[in-house]
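Exercise: predict the fold of this chain.
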Amino acid sequence: MTSLSKTYNPQEFETDLYQQWEEGGWFRADAQSDKPSFTISMPPPNATGQLHVGHAVMLALEDILIRWHRMRGYEALWVPGTDHAAIATENVVLQKIQREEGITDPRKELGRAEVLRRIADYVVDSRDTIKNQVRAMGSSCDWSRDRYTMDPPLNRCVNETFSQMYADGLIYRGHRIVNWDPKLQTNVSDDEVDRKEVASPFYTFQYGPFQIGTVRPETKFGDKYVVMHPDDERYSEFNHGDTFECEWINGPVEATIIKDSVVDPSFGTGVMTITPWHDHTDFEIAERHQLDKEQIIDFQGRLLANAGEFAGMPIEEARPKIVEKLAAKGLLVKTDGDYVNSKAFNSRGGGSIEPQIREQWFIDVNKPVVPWKGEKRSLREILIAVVREGDIQIVPDRFNNTYFHWVKNLRDWCISRQIWWGHRIPVWYRREGDSAEIQIGISPDGEGWSQDEDTLDTWFSSALWTWSTLVDPEKAADSTISFKELLKQSPDYQKFHPTQVMETGYDILFFWVARMILMTTYMVEDVPFQTVYLHGLVRTKEGKKMSKSDPATCIDPLESICDYGTDALRYTFYSLASTGRDIKFDLGRMEGFRNFCNKLWNAARYVLMNTQGFDPAASSQRSDADEWILSRLQTTMTETANSIEQYRFDRAAQTLYDFVWNEYCDWYLELSKPVLWDETSSNELRQGTLRTLLEVLETILRLMHPLMPFITEEIWQNVAPRLGISGDTIMLAPVSYTPLRAH
């Protein structure tokens, strides 16, 4: 009577169904199709292990959009991939080597080639794990187009971009202040810095005629500039450029007075000394006034020789001793304990950030050399224009102000990293006598050349993701084809770019989304996507942030799938996905949606067992109950479609839940029983109810398929043949409904 088992058990069919989908090629998009394209580039998970619940949310939200548009008649392409995640991946592998082999400094003992080989081997295994987890989520991505940020075609795009930006004067090498991590021995971008509130002693010292405050006395050995606001009446007797001599840590110093409006007169005494080598604000003051800069702390976090008797000491050891010496000189005015200040840490490794001036590679965001809509604009100006002028829509739009604020405060982007894993900077140097040569982009012929030791910031390559993944791999390997010709000769790029939606968490709006806009508008003179949909962070039901350091707060999506099934997990995400708001994840909801799956399963069994005698060609007559449920179905279809198109997945999930549970199952199925089981019912009326049972259920399955792909496919394979509907899979059945006329 039905091939559906008596009890709903997703483990019996989910894996097999996914294999059928993949082997059937139904996820593959056709670049030659006449259908309108709908493309999503999957935010590539880091190749450092396993997916977490945040990735699961991303996969669920993107899959509903892809499946929905595929069923709406679009040529839907979802490009999967993984990111090499330079700092994180190298750190994980180096720690693994240290832990398992007892090698204290793997880079020193093993060398660059061997370390890179081991990281590459680790990534292969990690990527396989991630792919299987993506499959477990039911993700209908096109695995034939699976990409990795270190693939050769993507590496060519990276080198092409670097070369073009260098030629346009946007990439330059210079000594500027960066966020240096002594622990990982690399600098990181501003967006990779976590600022945490910490309590520290706040010291006030006498510095000549002024009192200055600081939480970092260890940086003060090179201080020889006193800075104050030009309009601060308290110091009107002092002029810009005046000098004076005063006693300081290691003896007398000659200090110069600098007037600069960056100083906040209301903070402390309104006067500060500056350490340009070790503070971003101080560096900018020194740049404006062409002041000297002196390094006090080395790249290992120890004081240098100019610290005198404190040379070689780590910061934490030196600090109290420096304060003690200043106190002995009578220069310590007071100490305020537990002063709360913002301290910078590397989000990738947890190390404390020590600003340093280093010769690094940067992207100039203010140089007006980029062609955009008939004008030469700076990268910063284009970042603002594409959102303000509507080329890109951010959903929800409340993040527009956040985005504009970030762009307004954007500094030149430091793109070089002192690690080995990643895209190596495509610059080669050769020195012969007093002459020096430099080659950009392509490895030069001849002897004596050495490549830059640094690698590029991971975000440099991932910023090209929406289009570098679409270039033709074979043509990309042909260096005789120019970059512009490569794009023209890449069918995927021509068909599927720009992408329609970039779906990601709001926490990487700046890390990644803004950088994709910056690099894509520059390199291909188009936007990378038309809409940015930002989902919230996944938290515990109490609102706590999920953290690996607190395992009790973490939810493993694979464990949840084993316990409740993929469809229940996905439906839980949709029910909570209210545009941009954090998702408070509750296992109780997952239990409820597993019950919902069970309700749908039992309803399908009832329909299949009671429609054995349905004849599609027979005359039929609708009952009042039939007409009512068809009317309600039409309303449900409209509301569901509107909700998905507006990215209100929570509303779509609630609309379908209410209709299926309350109206179809609890009301209509009960109303159908008297017609089916009453022997006095006419055959026409009975056939009308059988038709309605099947048609409404089949339409429900189509509507719900983007949300619950597995259970809907399994049931549809049984229901569709009863209605004479042919097809290999529900995912290719159109989401439309025209009721068959009773006849």
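Check your answer against the key: DSSP finds 23 helices and 27 strands in the chain.
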